[in-house]
Amino acid sequence: MTKAMKEDPPFTGTSRRDFLNKLWIVLGGLALVELVGLVLAFFQPRKTGSKEGESVGIVEAGAVDKFTLNSVTAFVRGKFYLARLEDGGFLALSRKCTHLGCTVPWSSKDMKFVCPCHASVYDIRGEVVSAPAPRPLDLHPVFIENNMVKVDTNKVNKRSVFRAEQVVYAKKERDNPPHTWRARGTKEQRT
User: Fold this and answer.
1) Alpha carbon distance 27, 7 (integer Å)
2) 38-92: per-residue pLDDT in tens?
3) Which of 34, 36, 105, 157 has its CA 20 to 30 A from that of 111?
């Protein structure tokens, strides 16, 4: 063999080491871009607009007599709890904890809502019993028509304290006696 054959031809491309170094730089750059994207997404506020099928509007919960006193009924479709208080009043409480938005389950054994994320505790009226929740559970408007309890899930009322006027009561016949109206001419008259 000749001396010329033993020598390798001059190398004109990049070495394996250079290639791997460039590959690590590219992969590290992609990881950094992904990390920056995740951090930015974390700090962007959530969109509050309802998704298709998410907002159900007005939910007909049922007849007033269907709900026993001092009870809570969960409505999965409307994402709320309907609480019937001891005095017969109704409150529609949001399922979201006011601390970080976790779903708060009702414990009928303990008669309270306990947040599984950070242990906030609420009573049947949604008032904070144990922190870290900063305020009571949000309310949905409740109204009673023809002895049927209805809840408007499109509206959420944020509150800082419980007030008696937040409770909705069914009207009793003795409070509002039925009236008959008769039309005479163009004016309606009460009889």
Assistant:
1) 36
2) 998 888 877 655 454 455 788 888 898 899 998 999 988 778 999 999 999 999 9
3) 157
Per the DSSP assignment, residues forming a β-bridge with 113 are: 106, 122
What sections of the chain are H helices per DSSP?
Answer: 3-6, 16-43
In this predicted model, what pLDDT tens digit does every residue of 12-38 receive, in sequence order?
Answer: 677 888 889 999 999 999 999 999 999
**C-beta pairs of 66-74 under 8 Å, 24+ apart in sequence:** 67/149, 70/111, 70/124, 71/108, 72/106, 72/108, 72/124, 74/106
To 5 degrees, how large is the angle CA 184–CA 189–CA 191?
115
Q: Which two tokens stand for residue 161?
A: 């304290």
Helix, strand, or coil (residue 42): helix
